[in-house]
Amino acid sequence: xxxxxxxxxxxxxxxxxxxxxxxxxxxxxxTPLHWIPGDPASAHTINVLHLLLPAxxxxxxxxxxxxxxxIRDPRLREDVIGFIGQEAMHSQAHDDVLPxxxxxxxxxxxxxAQVDWLFEKLLGDRTLPPGRARVWWLKERIxxxxxxxxxxxxxxxxxxxxxxxxxxxxxxVMLDLLRWHGAEEVxxxxxxxDLFQHLDGDYRRRVRTWATAFAALVFLWQRGTRFxxxxxxxxxxxxxxxxxxxxxxxxxxxxxxxxxxxxxxxxLSRTYHPSKYGSTEQxxxxxxxxxxxxxxxxxxxxxx
Length: 304
Prior knowledge:
The chain contains 13 helices and no strands.
């Protein structure tokens, strides 16, 4: 049964704003490897973003550039172009953290090589004949991006409200990176789903690709956390555990399993639309005070 016979997801009209890429920079000179004081396990759980996101977001950009000629709605095309610009900047910002990790004795190459293979080979372009097979593969990847973006928006909303990180004295530069990125994920949280609806919208595909994306994210995240903890030169012999993750959730420095599980029926609801979850107003308010974002605005053409 497809979406053609189910209620069509309706966006919250007031949540749409024009999207722009912000050319942010961050100075990592004073950021410690364990940037949440006294909690290396939680810091490394979040550090996985720096290894996972650059390849993933480059893949988003590559797939969406292929989709642009198929978009018939001028406003959606404008949103997708804004999304591409923001995701390209996210990829670069997280990539720029990697030399800092190496300087502190943690080489991310073994893990990033695996992630690159996943996005460039397994999920990359395939040698398919023009026509239905090629369009099918493009739609599969667009649907998968919509599912992944549901979780990046979930994480963005979480980090904007994670006051426990401030209370624990988390490094302000790392917090600004995470919250700038999270705010932009909330800003553009509807674009991937709207593109999927515009080009396909089949509910069976939405469910199938969600299952694939969710399983891959859980696998890659736990693998990345284990990699970080096992290769941290200051934590000899230590291993990451589920208990560390649960403790971080209870203390508010990580998302809770319950919160992540509650997000599943949201996405699988036939009337789901991303604009109903998270606050564009809150995201914009953070971007108006983010040190990196305001500095980028000041140096942009026409900035103050």
